[in-house]
Amino acid sequence: MTGGGVTAGGPARAVRVAVPAPEAELAADALWQAGAAAIEERPGELVAAAADPAPLLAAVAGRWPAAVEAVDLDAALDAWREHARPVVVGRRLVVHPPWAPPEAGVAGRRPVVIDPGRAFGHGAHPSTRLVLAALDDLVRGGERVLDLGCGSGVLAVAALVLGAATAVGVDVDPAALAAAVDNGRRNGVADRLTVVEGATGTAAPAAGYDLVVANLLLPDLVELAPTVWRSLAAGGTAVVSGVLDAQRDRLAAAYRDVGLAPLGSAGEDGWLALTLRAG
What we know:
Elements: E1 2-3, E2 11-18, H1 24-33, E3 38-42, E4 45-50, H2 54-60, E5 66-72, H3 73-78, E6 87-89, E7 93-96, E8 110-113, H4 126-138, E9 144-148, H5 154-161, E10 166-171, H6 174-186, E11 193-197, E12 209-215, H7 218-231, E13 232-244, H8 248-257, E14 260-268, E15 271-278
């Protein structure tokens, strides 16, 4: 189960959704936007946990069979760990948890070791992989990077491992910031990583970043468009992801309206990342 900003502690309520595999990402996106704290994908179904399951049920019940049930949130949040595997990204990166080292055949790649704890961002989700691949292309050394909604810090840490000079991660969840700090230390980049607690639209430090990344849901990315624009240096680049391909037009319009020009896009398993340039 992947999650972001979850306070565990025994029994909780969850929504079990029966969904065909081709529609699983669409259903998961609806659950995230309805406030899911964590989602586990199983064959033919999704199990989504939240403090209040009612909005989750309402978000999917009109399209897929769904029911509310009790769930052990501690066990659910840790279920992904036994299935975690290294993720090879782009030309230079391999992302892996501490307990699953890369296999032979990835020599020469730069390892990024991530334990997300209770935060989102272990590197395997398609939207995360898309941003990591963009970082692999864009980071050449010496960049100032801002990660809005940093979760585990996987994107900020990866940028530093690739040679960025500094990175700032912003998140509203204290558990995410603690994980990001730990992952900075784990990868030997803690001295170049700063974490800031607060809403991404208000807590971002001063402008002048060469690269801004945000891997969030569509409503958050639309709201953040002015912040992304203000944060970038002239000629700086932004990479935004976390939306489905069907949401491309709304996302692109929000960033076009603040003056960011599209440079390109990439997709994986129905998820989309846009790369944009400040004038």
